[in-house]
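B., you asked whether I could sanity-check this one before it goes into the benchmark set. Here's the sequence:
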Amino acid sequence: MKDRDRIIKEIRIDKIGTITEGISTEEFFQNNTLRPILKFQNDLLIELFINYASKNKNVFFELSQDKKCTYIDKVTISDTAFRNQLLGIVVGLFSTEEYLEYIKNSSNFNKRIINMLIERWKSQLQLLVKKAN
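And here's what the prediction gave me:
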């Protein structure tokens, strides 16, 4: 198991964000673990969203910029199967130690993961549409 943990941490980039002495455990976990995983998995997560939108009547690609943002919010929060798939892509890259930290407050961390992912997609709207065409 130690080899898996070592390999997982090696393939990810270092911490993202400011890590100071006074930050909360959740913020530390977010900057040290969640952000690097989301960045590492970015291409896969973009393709996953494009596939989801394509299989759901392609309406996303016809919407205005504002409505695309609303669509991202709505489907990511309301579609439980899609949300669980997204969480699995992130949690699957935790080391054992990170997983043990995650399960202490998984509900809060799940919200953080989904919110960060929504913001990533919104900031990459042009890429989502361009790749789909």
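One thing to flag: The chain has a mean pLDDT of 90. Otherwise nothing jumped out at me.
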